[in-house]
Each structure stands twice: as C-alpha cells, then as structure tokens.
What does this fold into?
Amino acid sequence: MAAGPYNYSYIFKYIIIGDMGVGKSCLLHQFTEKKFMADCPHTIGVEFGTRIIEVAGQKIKLQIWDTAGQERFRAVTRSYYRGAAGALMVYDITTFIVRSTYNHLSSWLTDARNLTNPNTVIFLIGNKSDLEAQRDVTYEEAKQFADENGLMFLECSAKTGENVEEAFLDTAKKIYQNIQDGSLDLNAAESGVQHKPTTPRNTLSNDQPQSKDGCAC
Amino acid sequence: MEAIVQEVVKPEDLKKFEQRFNEQCLRGQPSATAQFEYAWCLVRSQSPSDLRKGTLLLQELFHKTADETAKRDYLFYLAVGHTRLKEYEKALKYAKAIQQVEPGNHQAREMTAYIEKKMKKEGLIGMAIVGGAAAVAFGALAGLGVALAKK
It folds into this structure.
C-alpha cells in the first residue's frame, strides 16, 4: 500500500461534542472500528480517531477529536474546537430533562459557533435511536431545532450502526462541497482542512528527513 | 494514543490557564478545577520543567480527592506527563493503576500498551548506542547489523 507519500488528498478535522453519556465515544468507535463498545466508561479528556473515506472520488482522511462530556474537562476541551472543519453535536433521544435538552444544545451550539470558523459544518446527531420505547425527544422537535439553526441533522444508533456512516460522510460531503464552491478558503487559518497533493516532489521531500534519521547512528 | 500523548498545548492556552490558576492562588486556595485545567496544559508542554510542575500539581490533586472518577482522570494525565518526561516506569505504574479502578477502561489499556512499546523501542536503541561488541550483536537482532558492519 506504500504507493505514494499519502494515500489521501485531504485531511478534515472533526470534533465531537455534547453532554456526558450521550454516546459520543461509542459513535466514534462505531465509525472507526465498526463495532459497538458496550459499557463504555466516561472519556478521560479527549480521544482521537482517524479513518480514510472517499467523497467524489477523492480520498479524505478524517482526524476526529472526541471530547469528554464531563464538566471538569469543558474549559480545556474548548481549545480543540479551533480549526475544526466539522463539528458533530450529539444528544441522547431518550433524555429530555424537562426541556433542558434545548438549553444544553443551545449552549453547545453557542460554543461551537464562537470557537470555530463560520464555515465549520455543524451536524446535529440524535443518538440511541435503537431505544425507541424510551424516546423522549421527538424527531420533529429536533428537526425543527436543526432547521432553525441551520444545522444538518440525523438520528443514529451507535449500537446498531444505523446512520452512523451517513452522519460522518454527509459532514465530509458538505465540507468538500464548500471547498469546491469556494466558500471554504483552504489558505485561511484554521479552516480545518489540509490539502495533500500527491506529487512526486512530496515523495522526495518526505524521504530525505527519513534517510537522514536512519544515518544518525 | 500517540496523538494524545504527543499533542502539544498552544502557548496561549497554557498562559490563559496559568493566569487563572495564579489569580486563584493569590486569593487563597485554588479550586480543583483551576488546578486540573492548568496541570492538563502543563503536561502537554514541551518544557521539562512545565511537565514536572504539571505532574506535581496532579499528584497533589490525586491525594486531596476522594472522587474515584477524578482520581482516574488525574492518573491518566500523570501517565501522560511521565511518558513525555521519558520516565516510563512511573508512567506505567499510573496507567496500570487506572485499570485497577476501572478494569475495562480502553484508554488506560491503550496507554499501557503505548508506554510498553516506547520502553521496548528506546531500550533497544539505548543498548545499541551504549556500544561495544554487545551492541553489534543486539544491533544485528534489531536489523541494524548491515549499517554497523559497513562502518
């Protein structure tokens, strides 16, 4: 598989945010490992995952920072928002704590808007869609919230995998579309996107430091 | 785990949380949150003295709290700090301690595996550098034999 310096043409940075226990890490795990992680403990700080996907024939590497929902981590995890091309904002469809879901989502959204750039694609995910019997947030009200705030939206299940691929891929498609139509400037600081042209020149410049390192002994 | 352990704090973040912590110290006892936030930034610094300070602040937090989840979080960043200081024995002790509190914790498991890999890798390189005929033998095992024979 060592055909070139990179086997992808772009890197997109994502963040996953939302309250504690809504299933952020399980979504990441389902997306990168295609497995459901049962009895997942609360995340310590941040987790990191990658996966290469394909959009419009282009290979794209997703670098995903999954943030802990615990309050203790909230202030420092905000620094991970900077330079995110995509933000997945997760809530749990089974917990509608007396209208606080809206308040919480608004607060996460305010953070995401304030700390990312105007082109960051924000995707609202209603997780645990497999627990239909315990549903407490209707599809319609969440959809309305998403529409009012200009967010993309899907209900997913990290357990069954339903719509998980779609959420991550649709976010990438939207980012890619923003690059194509020029609304996302790749040269802008903190666009959250890196372009990796696969030219032979890169192979050379990539190999040189490696061979130098090899001779250092 | 490499991405988590090797990630470097942004200087403006380190400064911001340092100021917050220092202001609280001036007013009296800093909150556990402010101390943790500052320590989490310090253990992601590139300066050994920052790393050292971060681990000391975390140790203090660890001894002061009775909250198991908080203890787990402090242990994790103690492991990060000591790994970055290349104090692998200590780092390993902290990473393994998390697994005692939370046996199924995959972050602790990955951290343990990462530190063990570092120890193995840097241990072998260390032996090769220490020199002499023994190093050639070990070097050959590590695939360095050809390079050394040419010299």
